[in-house]
Amino acid sequence: MNSYFASVEQQANPHYRGRPLGVCATLTPHGCIIASSKEAKKVGIKTGCRVDEARTLYPSVILVEVDPPKYRSCTERIVAICRDYTDSIELYSIDEAFLDLSGYVSDFGEAARIGKIIQTRIKEEVGEWLLCSMGIAPTRWLAKFASDTADKGSVLILDKESLRRHIKGRDVQEAWGIAEATAARLGALGITTLDQLAQYPVMNLMRAFGVHGYYLWANINGVELSGLEKRTLPKSVGHSHVLRKRTRDINFHKAIVMRLCERTGRRLRDLGLEAHGFYAHASLEKFGSIGGSKRVYEPITTTRAIYHYTWNMVRNGVERDQATFYALGLFRLRPQSNQLSLFNKPKPERLIKALDVINNKYGEEIIAQGELAKLDKYHAPDRIGFRKTVGLDI
Questions:
Q1: Whole-angstrom Cα distance, residue 283 to residue 166?
Q2: Which one of 59, 143, 212, 387 counts the least CB within 10 Å of its CB?
Q3: What does pTM read for this prediction?
Q4: Count helices and strands in the chain by DSSP H and E runs
Q5: pLDDT of 186-196, one tens digit each?
Q6: Helix (H) or strand (E) holding 300
C-alpha cells in the first residue's frame, strides 16, 4: 500500500485529501512522523521527521495522531479481497503482503490482470483514495523488489528479460535487504550497481561474504531461496511507551504500567499462549535506568500477574526518580497448558476470557483494571509495531 496510514486518514476525512498530511506517533513537538502523504513528501516532510520540523517545513501541514484500529480494519478488508484469488498469502506487515499465484495462473500476464482487479476492488470496496503498487516475479524477493521500485499505484512485472533492463544502473541500496554497510563492502569489490552484482561471480561473492554472498547473488538473479514464510508464534510479546507527562505521582506511573501490562496480556491470551519469563525496563530522568529479566516457573497469563512482576522490577527506581520511558515484555512463550497449580489458588481464567471478549467487541478498556480508572486514554495509546500487527487469523 502506498503512504498507507496517511492515505487511510485522507480516505476517512475528505478535507485532508490533496493536502500535506503526516501521521504522528504523538503530537508533541518531538513526536515522530511515521507516515507522510504524497503531498507532504513533496514539501520535504518524510517518515522520521519530527512534528516541530514538519511545521517549520510547511506551517499549514495537517498532523494527526496514529489510529491503529482504523488501519487494522482497512488491512482486514484488503486481505479478504486478496483471499478471493489465492489461499497462499504471507502477511508481511500491516500494509504489505505476498500472494503466491502458482497453480492459479498460467503466466505473468494473467497474474497482472488479477493484480489490477485487486487494485480496482480495493478502491471500490475499501477506499477510493487507497493506492497500492504491485510487483510480479518468479520469486518472493524479486516480487518485493518490483513493488518497491514500481511507480505508485502501478503493476510491475519482472521476468528474465525485463529484470535485466530494470536493474541496469540502479544503485545496490535500492535492493531489498542491502543497507549502507553491505553496500560499502560491495563497493570495495567494485560493485555499485545491481546489474554489476547480478554479473559478479558467485564464488567470489561467497569468499567475501560467506553464505550471505550466495543469497545476494541468488536474489538478484531470480533464484528462489525460501518461498512464502509461514507465520509462526512470536518469541516475545510486549509494549513500550515514552511518557508525555513528567510527574512524580506514583499512582500515575502505576496506571501507565498497568495499561502496558493489559495490552501485553491481551495479546498473549489472543495468541493462546502463556509465558515463563518476563523483562521490564524504566528509563529515569536522573539515575539512568532500572530493570531486568527473570524466568519463572508458574505460567504467566493474567494482566495482574504481568503487572505484579513488572512493577516489582521497576518500583525502586520509579519511587526515587521520575520515569520517562517504560518497556515490558514476556518471553519463553508456549501454548497455554491450562495446568492447575497444586499449591496456589486457581486463577479466574473464565472471568479473564470474558473480559477480553467484551473489550475486543465493544472497545478497549470498556471494562478496565481499577488502576486505569482515572488515566486519560491520551497516555500510552495503542501503537503499531513493524511486522507485529496483523493477527494470525486475518
A1: 47
A2: 59
A3: 0.74
A4: 14, 11
A5: 999 999 999 99
A6: strand 289-300
